[in-house]
């Protein structure tokens, strides 16, 4: 069995991670570290786990586990690893943005691989250190990677995406209260969202001359989970050629599905899937991309990476199904 530890166990992403790992056939959860919840049962922070586990939060760390997941706030993973040294054999999967960019990937003799399996599967299999992608970044990259692989990103890309309130994390802020979020919508960080840097980095790895604008408008939705992203750009390729390109690109990737039919967010929520829909209107290609921000956009993808790192079938423990309503 793979002995796993979780650092920062009280948040939304760690809650999803626990729900997956308590039912994963090859994993034993060794410890769940949380200074705010130490000595309380996991169900104090994640009450839906009642009957699933009797584990208790701890403020002690076992540095000899097989894998550790860092579910810490952005900027906190580096500080944690500076103060806590794990065994050489311990795999580390970081869910923050601390190591996603090439300039940050080398840290204390550790080289973090960007953990988007549909882009870097071979590197993920061979590494011990993973920088898990951001949620918006995952939805947007999966919508664009096939185009970049064919050198087809020749024009500006326009993106409008809506995320659920869980994307803001468990800590309350002015724009996460139910009374503010309910029956409301707003955009934020227009044209300058932090995930743009990792998106551009990935696209440039496939299309070296890519230098067009990515005009990204992120929106806060009134629902709790999921990302619904629409992207459009110009291309001379026909719809049939594009559908074939996408289906071929993702043929060996079990969590990405391509269709020419209309899609809706609930098709992907509570799953580790990314579902892509392609439409062509004149010279414009419209790609719709849907994911669950807490699963394919965070914890599900982290377990997908863990499976690859330990030589398991990629889908192990992740055959999650949407309710559809």
TrEMBL record:
Provide the organism lineage as a comma list.
Answer: Bacteria, Pseudomonadati, Bacteroidota, Flavobacteriia, Flavobacteriales
Molecular function GO terms recorded: N-acetyl-gamma-glutamyl-phosphate reductase activity; NAD binding; NADP+ binding
Example GO BP: L-arginine biosynthetic process
> To which protein family does this belong?
Belongs to the NAGSA dehydrogenase family. Type 1 subfamily.
This chain belongs to which protein, by name?
Answer: N-acetyl-gamma-glutamyl-phosphate reductase
Q: What is its main location?
A: cytoplasm
Q: In which pathway does it act?
A: Amino-acid biosynthesis; L-arginine biosynthesis; N(2)-acetyl-L-ornithine from L-glutamate: step 3/4
Segments forming domain Semialdehyde dehydrogenase NAD-binding: 3-127
């Amino acid at each position: 069995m793979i002995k796993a530890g979780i650092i920062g166990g009280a948040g939304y992403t760690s809650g999803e991670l626990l729900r997956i790992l308590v039912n994963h056939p090859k994993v034993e959860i060794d410890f769940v570290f949380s200074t705010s919840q130490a000595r309380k049962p996991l169900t104090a922070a994640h009450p839906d786990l009642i009957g699933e586990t009797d584990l208790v939060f701890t403020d002690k760390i076992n540095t000899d586990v097989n894998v550790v997941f860092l579910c810490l706030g952005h900027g906190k993973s580096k500080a944690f690893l500076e103060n806590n040294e794990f065994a050489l054999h311990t795999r580390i999967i970081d869910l923050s943005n601390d190591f996603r960019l090439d300039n940050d990937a080398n840290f204390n003799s550790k080289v973090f691989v960007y953990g988007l399996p549909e882009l870097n599967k071979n590197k993920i299999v061979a590494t011990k250190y993973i920088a898990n992608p951001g949620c918006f970044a995952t939805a947007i990259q999966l919508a664009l990677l096939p185009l970049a692989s064919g050198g087809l990103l020749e024009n500006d890309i326009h993106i409008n995406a809506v995320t659920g309130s869980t994307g803001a994390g468990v800590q309350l802020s002015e724009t996460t209260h139910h009374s503010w979020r309910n029956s409301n919508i707003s955009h934020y960080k227009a044209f300058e969202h932090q995930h743009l840097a990792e998106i551009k980095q990935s696209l440039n790895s496939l299309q070296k001359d890519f230098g067009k604008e990515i005009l990204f408008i992120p929106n806060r939705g009134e629902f709790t989970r999921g990302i619904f992203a629409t992207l459009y750009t110009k291309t001379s390729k026909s719809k049939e050629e594009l559908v074939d390109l996408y289906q071929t690109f993702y043929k060996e990737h079990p969590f990405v599905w391509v269709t020419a039919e209309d899609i809706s967010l609930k098709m992907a929520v509570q799953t580790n899937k990314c579902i892509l829909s392609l439409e062509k209107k004149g010279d414009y290609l419209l790609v719709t991309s849907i994911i669950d921000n807490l699963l394919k956009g965070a914890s599900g993808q982290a377990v997908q990476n863990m499976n690859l790192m330990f030589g398991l079938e990629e889908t192990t423990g992740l055959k999650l199904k949407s309710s559809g309503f």
